Amino acid sequence: MPSTKKALHFLSSALATTVSVAILGYGMSTEWAVSKMLCSGSENVFTNGSANISYELFYGAIARGSCPVFGGEKTIQVFEKLAETGGAPQILHGIVITLLALCLLCSAGSILITLYNSVSNPYQTYMGPIGLYTCSSGSACISFLVLILYVVNVQLTEMSEDLVKNDVGIVSVYLKDKTSEFQVGYFLLIPYMVLSLLAILLVYLFEHAAYTHRQEQQRPTEDAPKEIMMY
227 pLDDT exceeds 60? Predict the structure, then answer.
């Protein structure tokens, strides 16, 4: 059986990962970004027309005011609408969702490994600390990549413009001055990433202390006191 100190370190690591999964799960169900732009039926004349899109990962809402003539608000399935427009936004959004699923999978692996280590001692196998380091660092790195890819998709591609034009239909519409604001769902990736790294740190501190203790116990005999060497 593992020591109480080891069990506490690994259970604390499992708790940190569990909280991170809860945060990511909530983040994936709430709003990630809002894009706003001016809208007109004429390329040279922009009056008070506007279009706003709010994004969750799977659902969103498009609100059009005088864009180009009539307005309205409707709920959309983001990936379904992106499939209709095609191109880079669809690919990037699919990658983001796939990577988030991998984050959850890595976190699940971290939780299982830490719980197993809290009641066992598989130090030299993939079910030991090495497995935890791999899963948790994978979660942190993948979530950081998602942060970058999502910004690229919202800011640098024409995802929002394509969705508005798709919603308008066959009527010509001109869009400009797009601005985007990222919401709580996006920013919750940051505490998820931090907690994944904390899970690693908690186990590393125990492993480092245990290694130092073993090294002290294995000092060469020449470091022993002289009175002990006389026996």
Answer: no
